[in-house]
UniProtKB/TrEMBL annotation:
Similarity-based family: Belongs to the IFRD family.
Listed InterPro entries: ARM-type_fold, IFRD, Interferon-rel_develop_reg_N
Positions of transmembrane segments: 185-204
SUPFAM superfamilies from the UniProt entry: ARM repeat
Pfam families in alphabetical order: IFRD (PF05004)
Domain Interferon-related developmental regulator N-terminal, first and last residues per copy: 19-257
Region of interest called Disordered, as start-end residue ranges on this chain: 373-408
Keywords, sorted A to Z: Membrane, Transmembrane, Transmembrane helix
Top-level lineage group: Eukaryota
Protein name (database record): SALT-TOLERANCE 32
Amino acid sequence: MGWREYYYGLNKDNDDSDQDNGDSENSTMLIGSIDCYFRQLSEKRASVREEALAGIVKVLVHRLEERVVDFVENNFVTLVYHCLWCIRKSRVAEEMENAVYIIGLVAMITEYVDTSHEVYVDVFSAVSNGLKSKVDVGKVLECLAIVTFFGAKNSDETEKAMQLIWSFILPESNSTMKKKHPSDVLLVVLPVAISAWTFLLTTLDGWRLSYKIWQGASSCFSNLLNSENESVCAAAHEALALISESNCLEKFSPKAYSEKLHLSIAYNQKSQTYCETINGRKLKLSSRSQIIQMKYLRQFLGEDGFVKHMMKNENFHDIFEFSPKTENSCDMLYEPEREKVQVRYFHRPVPIQQDNSLLPFVSRENRQILKRMTKSSNSSLSKARTALLKKKRSIQDGENNPFAVDEE
């Protein structure tokens, strides 16, 4: 049983409290209980720790309120420490899976770059130093992909994580990895590893990729298309499609021309705009990279958790350029006819290399700068827009009441 199915089972007895129109009192009790769960992580009894971890997961996935985000920011060091301890010392599989999952959620929820980066460093070090045989390797690779996606500060750190994941895709490239894990385990992990590797590739510009590291990757994925495992074939197909769109095929194959011809015939599918409605708001994705990211995060969180995070998680809003409709949102009453507000800002241009690779990548620092300059309520654009709205309203009030006079 995977963790998504496990947590769905946890929610079956409390479905009413998990609905947006459910009992707000139950929601408050659930959020407040996270402090109790947190204290129980220090208990010696495994059963108590297991219940506490499951409770924390339920809150972080389904109740992403402001107080929960504050809890993660204030306690992430101790929380991650407890989870890593459970992974190393626990003998209960479900407890270890819960701990792995929480680490990924912490990196996903925190809005501070330094916090998510610290989580990335801890997880990368733990995976690099080897995993216990009882730990579900697939869950660990998913966690590594998530913390790298949210916590890596540059392309070098992302590629290091991709190389670590690659050792599970092609064990021959790492002899120690092949010795540590039986071939049957590696076969089960293979589609998970390919999907995690592809997910991280979506964050890199093609010109940032190394010419030496990924030579032969496209040939490896092409060979996997003949696998009898449908999950492996689907994951390999998606990886090849993304590679073919990156316009840097020479970095993935020494025989660039023949591989490119093969891929252009078999996998060169035009990117289609993807649209769906989430709680009445449209989510529109225009690139294959964003679609892959959306699918991966949805699989990691489950359907209900993905919707909750799309509505509440600021990181998701930045990644997908999604603006949820909230009670405090201030929609424009009417469009100005003559006056407009415009703010311009300039940043150092990013050099484009000769391979003209254009996989979209914007660092979290740059996204936060853009958000502060354009979306924040204290930004120049927001202040100017507010002043303009007040002016228009006063004009409209005057038009609606032409007999009004000024009192001296």
